[in-house]
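Q: Joint fold for the lines below.
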Amino acid sequence: MLAGLGASYGTAAVYATRYLYPARPRAKAWMYVARVADIAPGGSLNYTTPGGEKVAIARQAQSGTVDDFVALSSTCPHLGCQVHWESQNERFFCPCHNGTFDKSGKGTGGPPGDAGQSLPRYPLKSEGGLLYIEVPTESLEVADASPPRDGHDPCLGPHLGDGARV
Amino acid sequence: MFSLQAWIRERVPVGPEQLRELTNEPVPNHLKKWWWCLGGTPAYLFVVQIVTGILLAFYYKPAPQTAYESVRYITEEASFGWFIRGLHKWAATLMVAAVVLHQMRVYFTGAYRKPRELNWLVGMCLLLLTLVVGFTGYSLVYEQLSYWGATVGANITDSVPVVGVYMKQLLLGGEVYNDNTLSRFFILHAAVLPVTMAALIALHVTLIRLQGVTEFHFKDEDPKKAKFFNFFPEHLLTELSIGLVLMILLSVLATVLPAEMGPKADPLTTPEVIKPEWFFYVAFRWLKLFTGTLAVLSMGLVVFLMYAWPFIDAQIRKWRPNSEASVWIGIAGALAIIALTVWEASVAH
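A: Joint structure:
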């Protein structure tokens, strides 16, 4: 009797938990960024994901491979707030808990600095001289369209040299 | 009329005398003073929250596309919507304050000691649930504070070792804040948490009735005077008086300092200055002082110690019967909470 009750209600509880747990991970896709040759060593560009997140992509070497590039997320690794670039301080700053990061994304102060955390990096790849980034393709739907913001249109090419310099 | 009474009596065989006996209990004299009645205050405010919450739910639409606009409609267009929302907001604020003050009263008077340890545990659950229901409540408005508060809250759960990542996904309905998140917060805020709280309040009151209200002895007491008075109707009148004062206070606050609307949530921009509600200032400052996991684990340890305090205190008193350790630890804890709250309130970052 007890075993039956446990099995039936236990199964229902497991199914209920599984029902509440997200069915699938966040959808991602490889998106075109720019021609590798268009970003000079030491140069950078701002890329905006389909969901609207800003990504700072910088070229740090000139070997000609994808390893030359880093793509820094603007999501703070501490508790998920959005960092912004403070040009006067040459740093990324997270207003939630005062996290700071240098231009390479390494944590320099606040909880991320103490924990040795860096800004997350997006995966990059180059194919045929073209640079691609793997980013989430889903975004939060909102009813009223936000005012148009600077963004990346794959048909028009990237915005070069605007915003944060990394 | 007589036939109606007889009809009811036949179906509910309880007379006025039996009802009086069932509901009555001797109440210690100190409860004639309102500051000893802080336990009834959050219960009263909980009822206000249920009633105003049901009214707000008639218009609220829990989706990112509609939530902010529906709250704006309640606040600016629905007849007396501003008043209902103001009552809800201020009752929540006062409820947190009343629960904290009640818990402090219980702590500093040692009313958690044997045989009332279990009721302290129930009270601790109610304290935490009050904070969580406050958190999920301001997350529903879908203003900047709502969005970033929910994001930070979810990532705090993510900092819990081993199970944190699963807890975060269950809370958000995905890896990050998404279209499923707001409806989850709404179900938690409007159904799961209130029902749980109602059950715990019932258990809390039942245990008080079974154990009786803690008796205190005061130096200026007249030994000839009766030490107790009746719950019904004397204490009920005290509680009703408190209810009247609270309703006047809530109405004044809702009118003079109405619930406002901040900027709509922008998932791409964290405001330069962002603060949670005042009752989370302590945790917010703590999170600035320590790394994520250390901050979360240390806060978890503090909560665990608060839960276990009746048993820790019993061990201390067994070792040193006249120890005042609990008072000094309580004062230190209260000062730390006040200091961190004031610190967070007084600076932008």
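Q: Anything notable?
A: Chain A touches chain B at residues 17, 20-22, 25-26, 52-54, 78-84, 94-98, 110-112, 114-115, 136, 138-144, 146, 149 (CB under 8 Å). Residues 32-138+150-160 of chain A form a domain with the Rieske Iron-sulfur Protein fold (CATH 2.102.10.10).
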